[in-house]
Specification:
Length: 350
């Protein structure tokens, strides 16, 4: 890996430096060419840096600000108070070219607003989409977007998400002709909202896409599609439901302090009897391993971590950003969208 710098909103999320500093320590150990710009309160950050080696500390610079965006504030109020915040400094570091990407666990809406303000969008994309890889039961993954950046999306925006998601899947999952589907309440043609039905008809006419039609929520983890497109409202609910179910399922099989011997024996028996063949695969769907959603549609990499992420999960968000920077995902999506636009112009002229 060549030299790479990430800007980190150290104060963002529910736990701030208690989580973000151990996560960056893991990342520094994994990547010898990686460095960080830490944006946040110097006094709160410094105590957590003592556990880092002197070599690792040399790969860190701190941009001090006491200002932090309160996640509990209404969006407009939070946005007004964002100037000079740790999140704003992280985004600005990318815009100024000091870092190739940034990671934050803070307010999603404010992060999107700041990113749109400071970082230029990709051509022919109206709004970025929060995009992530979701695990499937066969230990593979699907791209899903939007996961919460746009509560509402008309048909043209859904089609833009599909085009971006298609290129993202080609590059991140190394697929030639990704299968694409729209998340809906049924698979019949007449089901769903008007924007969904209009997007469905439009995508059927885009023959460069391997469009499969509608997909229902119960098939999200069955790997019947490589790209799953939806509006941010539906996508966020679907994602949180999947994560909650996976965490609850996995936690059921962990030995708790209050477990009786009989309860623990029953859990072990159930694993051996029913899930022995699949338990290792189920461990791979741990949401911590899939933390980190990208604001796809921007010219630089901006990754949103869950606010409640632990240090391991935040580490994976950092790794997700690194992977996209190394694979030049924004540039490749831009090139792909440009080619599509040029082909449309040529077809219209002929």
């Amino acid at each position: 890996m060549s030299n790479l710098t990430l800007a980190l909103d150290v104060m963002g999320g529910d736990f701030g430096p208690r989580i973000t500093i151990p996560a960056l320590s893991l990342a520094l150990r994994e990547n010898s060419m990686l460095s960080f710009i830490l944006c946040g309160d110097h006094a709160q950050i410094s105590p957590y840096l003592h556990s880092l080696s002197s070599e690792q500390q040399q790969r860190i610079q701190i941009r001090h600000t006491p200002s932090v965006i309160d996640d509990n504030l209404p969006f407009m109020q939070a946005l007004r108070q964002s100037q000079g915040s740790s999140m704003a400094l992280a985004v600005e570091a990318v815009a100024k070219g000091d870092a190739q990407g940034c990671v934050s666990g803070g307010n999603t809406g404010v992060l999107m607003a700041l990113a749109k303000k400071w970082i230029s969008p990709l051509p022919h994309i109206d709004r970025p989409a929060l995009t992530s890889l979701i695990p499937s039961l066969n230990a593979k993954a699907s791209v899903m977007l939007d996961l919460g950046a746009n509560v509402e999306a008309d048909s043209s925006l859904l089609v833009q998400f599909a085009e971006m998601g298609n290129i993202f899947a080609q590059e991140m999952l190394h697929l030639v002709y990704p299968r694409l589907a729209l998340l809906n309440i049924g698979t019949e043609e007449q089901k769903g909202s008007q924007p969904l039905r209009e997007a469905h008809q439009a995508l059927k006419q885009r023959h460069h896409l391997n469009y499969q039609g509608f997909i229902e929520g119960d098939k999200l983890m069955n790997h019947v599609a490589d790209v799953i497109v939806c509006d941010g409202f539906s996508g966020n609910i679907a994602l949180k439901t999947l994560e909650g179910a996976a965490k609850n399922f996995l936690s059921f099989f962990k030995k708790e302090a209050g477990d009786s011997p009989l309860c623990h024996h029953f859990k072990g028996w159930l694993v051996r009897l029913v899930l022995h063949r699949y338990f290792r695969k189920l461990q791979k769907i741990n949401p911590d391993r899939h933390n980190g959603a990208t604001l796809l549609g921007l010219s630089s990499v901006v990754v949103k971590s869950h606010g409640s992420a632990n240090s391991v999960a935040f580490f994976y968000a950092i790794q997700h950003a690194i992977q996209q920077i190394e694979q030049q995902i924004p540039a490749k999506i831009s090139q792909g969208l440009y080619r599509l636009h040029e082909n449309k112009i040529c077809t219209a002229k002929s």
